[in-house]
Amino acid sequence: MVFSAVVLLLFTHNTVYNTVKSYLTWKTAALIALPIVPVIVLVAGGRLATGLSRREMSLTFFVHLSRSSLTFVLEMLALFVSGAVADLALCFNLVTLRLLITRIPLLPGKDLLFLGVGFGAAKVLAVSQAALAATLVVMATIQQILDCLLIGIPWLIAHYWFRHKHPAAPAP
Description:
With 172 residues, this protein is mainly α. 79% of the residues lie in helices and 0% in strands. The chain has helices at residues 2-12, 14-23, 26-33, 36-45, 54-82, 88-102, 110-125, 129-165. Helix 1 packs across helix 6 (88-102) and helix 5 (54-82) runs antiparallel to helix 8 (129-165). The two termini are 34 Å apart.
């Protein structure tokens, strides 16, 4: 999802594209392509790399891609419907920026950092800081709720299915 959003951002904004192009070296390109290595290992290695079948790997990939896509769309809609940002393209830019910031490794408080960036953007874009702040908090909450649902619903199903099949046994 991050890769798709960034590529779309690069090809729709000439300024961003030219800036990235001027700093791009083969070392930077190799660093950007680094996340592709585990994908190649999993796909090429198959059963040697993981205990999952190709079907299970595909299903896992599409579940997480669907969750990421749904979160991305909901965050864009939250920004647009809230009235904090009136342009859908600008909503896409802000959500892509949030996505990039939250993927920086070893950085604590990523959501707080993005709130600070969002406040700065509100000043530059001449939008209501209060409306944008409230919307950014809602966006962080949407992410947490979707993550809890992704983990919680399968756990609940497994928990109650186990209880139904083995009523005398302690729950796992």
